[in-house]
Amino acid sequence: MNTTNEVETTTTTGRFRPSLSFYHPNAKGTGCALQMTLHPAHDHVEGSIFMSIANQIGVANSNRENGEFKYSRFDWENKICVKLDFNDLCRFLQVLRGECESIGNGKGLFHQHNDATTQIRFSHILEPESSYRLEVMRSAGAGVKEKASRFYFNQSEALGLCEAIASSMAIVCFGIPMLVPSKSTKLRDEKGLKNDSAA
Questions:
Q1: How confident is the model at residue 194 (pLDDT cuts 50, 70, 90)?
Q2: What is d(CA 173, CA 118) in angstroms, rounded to the nearest whole number?
Q3: What is the CA radius of gyration of the chain?
Q4: Quick check: is 99 in a domain?
Q5: Could you list the residue range(s) of the whole structural domain that residue 57 is in?
Q6: pLDDT tens-digit map of 145-156
Q7: Where residue 156 sits, what CATH number does that domain have?
């Protein structure tokens, strides 16, 4: 499983990395939750989005308030975490933008990490209604139980996901911009000239 260091923040909780989260519990206990965290490129490290997916634990409370199931729990201890790099994210965007119906004509992506193989399938489906289906399956070899999770994005969630990934691509590619003095800046400072923009 891929891991990364969290960034420092000024919150009272200390170290924290904001995540885009989706929670879909249901009364059958077959719901799922998904979290996506952006990791900017830096130095010689390529940027990525880490995606964690966890199945629902037990049946959600039958009492519903404001159209949401209350007191639902998700099995984050046994989550599946995958690292989506530049090429992976481009394939997701192709499906979300309608350029193709699925990644790899339904075959999906394959990630190999140590002895585990993870298959990621993402497709646009029309039945029972237009939505997007994400399936993540991890196999760690003979004698090890396979993990599998399935998540459905409705149309509005898919639109938001598309915009979020597209907006993140510059940071995945180039990181967070830093103001680096150029050679001309040093030369102007040595000659005692003011920066035109600061004048």
A1: low
A2: 24
A3: 21
A4: yes
A5: 20-190
A6: 689 999 999 999
A7: 2.30.31.10
